[in-house]
Amino acid sequence: MATSFDRWEKDPFFLAAEEVQESADRMESVYRIWVQERSEGDLEAAGVTGGGPTAAELRRELHTALGTAKWQLDELERAIRSNDQVISAGKDTRARHDDFVTAIGYRILEVENNLKESNVAEGRGALSWVHLDEDERDDLRLSYLQALFNRKTK
């Protein structure tokens, strides 16, 4: 009997899901440092010492990591939905995809909400995101897919 991981490994979206997972892990790592820094008000207490990032740099890094994870998850979800409809994916496949997207989406939403609350509390205003036109999105999507393909062929 195949395990859940075995089924994921054979899934055509496995490599893309791994990339999304890595981005979400990176986001959470930066988020933990940011939360620690905020709770103690001291970057040294968060384990960031000697030449480490300033509070502003850490916030920017978190915002970037959040945006990357959010964009990658959106792209993966869009590709999954399109593919699942085209190939009439089975119930188990759709459930596996939905579970992954939901779990990562929840992690992203939690970080985004906390960053938004912090911005409001500190009078920084709303989070802003880069808005790409359709050609720019296609170029970014293509470079992302090329990176995934190159990673798979190595």
Automatic annotation (TrEMBL):
<dbReference type="InterPro" id="IPR015260">
    <property type="entry name" value="Syntaxin-6/10/61_N"/>
</dbReference>
<protein>
    <recommendedName>
        <fullName>Syntaxin 6/10/61 N-terminal domain-containing protein</fullName>
    </recommendedName>
</protein>
<dbReference type="GO" id="GO:0015031">
    <property type="term" value="P:protein transport"/>
</dbReference>
<feature type="domain" description="Syntaxin 6/10/61 N-terminal">
    <location>
        <begin position="11"/>
        <end position="111"/>
    </location>
</feature>
<dbReference type="Pfam" id="PF09177">
    <property type="entry name" value="STX6_10_61_N"/>
</dbReference>
<keyword id="KW-0333">Golgi apparatus</keyword>
<dbReference type="GO" id="GO:0016020">
    <property type="term" value="C:membrane"/>
</dbReference>
<keyword id="KW-0812">Transmembrane</keyword>
<dbReference type="GO" id="GO:0048193">
    <property type="term" value="P:Golgi vesicle transport"/>
</dbReference>
<keyword id="KW-0813">Transport</keyword>
<dbReference type="InterPro" id="IPR010989">
    <property type="entry name" value="SNARE"/>
</dbReference>
<keyword id="KW-1133">Transmembrane helix</keyword>
<dbReference type="GO" id="GO:0005794">
    <property type="term" value="C:Golgi apparatus"/>
</dbReference>
<comment type="similarity">
    <text>Belongs to the syntaxin family.</text>
</comment>
<keyword id="KW-0653">Protein transport</keyword>
<keyword id="KW-0472">Membrane</keyword>
